[in-house]
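ugh ok so i messed up the first submission bc i forgot one of the chains. this is the corrected input, ALL of the components this time, i swear. 597 residues overall. if the numbers dont match what u have on ur side tell me asap before i send this to the collaborators (the ones from the other lab, u know who)
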Amino acid sequence: MKTLTIDAKDIHYTPLNQQIRAAIADGAKEITLNNVLGQRFIGDGLRGDDVTITVNGVPGGDLGMFMSGPTLIVHGNADHAPGNTMDKGRVIIHGSAGDAVAHSMRGGRVYVRDNIGYRGGIHMKKYLEKRPILVVGGSARAFLGESMAGGLVIVLGLGGVPPIAEQGVGSGIHGGEIFVRGPVDNLCLGNGTKQAPVTEEERAMIRPIIEDFAQSFGIDSTPLLAAEYTRIAAVSARPFANKYTLE
Amino acid sequence: MCGIIGVIDRRRQCMDGTKIKEALASMDERGSGEGAGYVAYGIYPDYKDYYALHVFFDNIRENKAPLDNLLEKWGTIIHDEQIKTYEQPGLRKVHTPWRYFFRPDRGMMPKSTTPDEDIVTHIVMKVNSERNGALIFSSGKNLGVFKAAGWPEDVANFYRIQDYQGYLWLAHNRYPTNTAGWWGGAHPFNLLNWSVVHNGEITSYGTNRRYIESYGYKCTMYTDTEVVAYLVDLLVRKHGLSEKMAVRALAPPFWDEIDRMPAKEQELNRAIRLTYGPALMNGPFAICVANENSLVGFTDRIKLRPLVSGESGDRLFISSEEAAIRRIDPDVENITMPKAGEPVIGRVIA
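and heres the new structure output, hopefully the right one now
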């Protein structure tokens, strides 16, 4: 298999992304980027289901934006909006991420081992057969799933942190669903949302996703699968049908 | 969108400006080349008892003598000189930066109880509102703002900020959205020992401006951020609030959150909101405020702009991006995202 290693030290993101694109066009299947520090837009718009890019360092914002197919593995923290408007593929972050993770994502998976900032999953949507998935190992800050239109968010609260401790979860949601390990305080819920314990069908549906997440980071999935979960979703099919006020 | 970074060394160990320039330049995409600036604390130890006034002159021949006369009417200029600058291809020098070391002379006002700070503030407001080709953009002791309309690296090279040694730095890369970029509109904004850098926009600017101008401050920079410097001066220096309480006034909890607090907390938070209602700032913001003893970072109450902090030994870093902090110190620890509306504070201990 064709592989390539790029030393990204002090390289601006434009030539860096050009090198990545040239390598993929040349048939490279595994690309490793070392010494990444703040370069934005890594992997943006890339195609190729069989391509894996490993990012060693701290990439800049909009990692994997519009990406359709490849797998991006980050060993470090990501900045704002990894998986922005992503179409297909995987972003696996061995660390934490900033605000607006999975912003407007419409397909593929984003896994964050630790914590995410504010507005994770904002504007996520499903499209035809595509259904985006965001799984967070640690905690998510306020406004998780804000204005969400479709897709799936799971927050696990590993490492002793409460998965959700701030306001506005699902604020403005009209599609999709958010699963949180353990109970959720109603004060954390945004307008137009409701919560309920998971049903057996829902538990069966999230099970393979949690298993896959745990496997990606070498975590034991047993306690996660045995845990109780809360499902948060829109109160009705069109909670904001009456303009912007909740009916 | 703008980029900000700040660092404080709690033991006042100095850093030159090389790394802060690199860190700010790594966030070039957050700016538009229309404004960048730096402030460093501890750079004028030989004149540490004098107010270091940094001035943009439009024209030395016409504008300098009137400022000299005004300053000499109020006190003593112990030394003044042109701030050394170095021509940069990407930066058009439209002003001549100058520095004065100045002290109000108590002998000239024998019965006055007005503090020196108020006299300097009066001079700054008077000069900046008269617009006679002179703008005082830095007026603290043992600190200096260096800013211009340009990219971070060009502005840094223009002033050669690597030649300055400071224990506390703030830096800002501007992307002006609501008003035009110009030298005076670049950050940091400074008054006395307060310096402010800001990413975002303060949509309550009109209210905040009316409020602060009723206390004699004058907004003259055609942009929102300067109100923050004046609000902090009013709340902390004049009213004696702690930095933490000042942030509480500027970015207070929502009423429903206050309603759920224990009785004593409720009373305090209600009092702050009611007393300082017109100082409350709305809109998206991530802000760093510094004085000679502390660095404070905070965001708006619903976190519409990024801010992360990190620590390394005696140093606290606050920035828009973790990567910018790691550009200064790759081994920085405790990378944290401060909670919306809650300050992260670093203080000198020596």
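quick check: The CA atoms of residues 204 and 282 of chain B lie 5 Å apart. that seems consistent at least. The longest helix of chain B spans residues 60-74.
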